[in-house]
Design the sequence.
């Protein structure tokens, strides 16, 4: 399982259990999109594996953020290093 989730109140919490690569990014993006559309949360958190996320993992997080932004749902990234958080923030600005 690449993505697991739980719902707490109005927040959808998703966990990526492994860093994604170019081959698994599309499947993970589809899973995230389906979960957001199914649960209609007010907030989303995505936890990535500890350490430096792969470029594909960061790309997936940015893609999920854009999708959520279009739905007016704030998305936050957790589990990433400070440097990865900066890259994520720079790409969503």
Sequence:
């Amino acid at each position: 399982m690449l993505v697991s989730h739980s719902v707490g109140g109005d927040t959808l919490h998703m966990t990526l259990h492994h860093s994604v690569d170019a081959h698994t990014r599309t499947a993970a993006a589809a899973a995230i999109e389906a979960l957001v559309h199914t649960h209609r949360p007010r907030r989303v958190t995505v936890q990535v594996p500890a350490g430096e996320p792969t470029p594909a993992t960061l790309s997936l997080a940015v893609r999920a953020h854009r999708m959520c932004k279009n739905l007016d749902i704030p998305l936050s990234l957790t589990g990433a290093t400070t440097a990865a958080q900066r890259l994520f923030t720079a790409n969503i600005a």
User: Anything to note?
Assistant: The two ends are 31 Å apart (CA to CA).
